[in-house]
Amino acid sequence: YGKNTIKFLRLHKEGKKQFVKEVEVCAHLRLTSPQEYLEGNNSLVIPTDTIKNIVLVLAKKNGISSLEQFAIDICNHFMTTFCQVAYVKAYVQEVPWQRLHEDGVPHIHSFICVPDGIRFCEAEQCRNGPLIVFAGIKDLKLMKTTQSGFEGFYKNEHTTLPERHDRILCGEFFCKWSYGECKDFDFNCIWKKIRECILEAFAGPPDCGEYSPSYQKTVNCIQMFVLSRVPQVQVIEVVLNNTFYNVVDMKNLGLTNDKEVLVPVETPYGSCACTLGRK
């Protein structure tokens, strides 16, 4: 049991310059006894309102140096404070605020919300067990307008999809990875590096791109690239929900539409997923 969607803004000041972290936290516990379920005995139950207050107090006392460290702080607090807690899991996701810049100069206290992917993390721990930390990015929408195709696929009497050598590749990514033994990691630096790897593997070189024969191959290339560049990552899961675009037929309007005007196919949409880890 636990408390979901604990939302708050943490403001930090360094002189005149201000910093913000707006997050949403879910904290779940499993107790050593199920007596509250079986017997209606609530003597071991930590109220969910108390869980919420603890999260807010930790944000006040410790700040949020990184999402991962804050999730670790939550796990550590419940494990060291309450002997009846057998398991704790903390999920933290961030609202994507970015500092405003004017003529290249960063503003000291103004921010803009940029929806270019939402950062999240999870930390979980069993009593007398290891602390496990996951991190990720979701709602990351990417598109490339060429250098993508889909050919040579299996066909039968139900197949109507034509082969395409040149198409738009567009989709919404969900990526989640696990770390090995958490040492003194710079979680912020690692997350930024992984995000850069995702973008680089998706797009390819800026002057020519990288051909994608399928959504599945693109997913695998991203995973292989991250594992080759970021040794701290042990397992990476990627889910890609595809958005397809159809060329508008403008013959009745007396126009030739050479893939210049397209409309998105909202539903149904394709999806592919893969989990890849080190040996």
From TrEMBL:
Urate binds at residues 48-49, 150, 167, 216, 242. Keywords: Oxidoreductase, Peroxisome, Purine metabolism. GO terms for molecular function: urate oxidase activity. It is found in: Peroxisome. InterPro entries: Uricase. It catalyses: urate + O2 + H2O = 5-hydroxyisourate + H2O2. Its main location: other. Pfam families: Uricase (PF01014). It is an enzyme of class 1 (oxidoreductase). One of its GO terms (cellular component) is peroxisome. Pathway: Purine metabolism; urate degradation; (S)-allantoin from urate: step 1/3. O2 binds at residues 48, 242. One of its GO terms (biological process) is purine nucleobase catabolic process. The keyword Amino-acid biosynthesis does not apply. Gene3D superfamilies: Urate Oxidase. The keyword Oxidoreductase applies. 5-hydroxyisourate binds at residues 48-49, 150, 167, 216, 242. Its EC number is 1.7.3.3. Belongs to the uricase family. Catalyzes the oxidation of uric acid to 5-hydroxyisourate, which is further processed to form (S)-allantoin. This is Uricase. It comes from Setophaga kirtlandii (Kirtland's warbler). The gene is Uox.
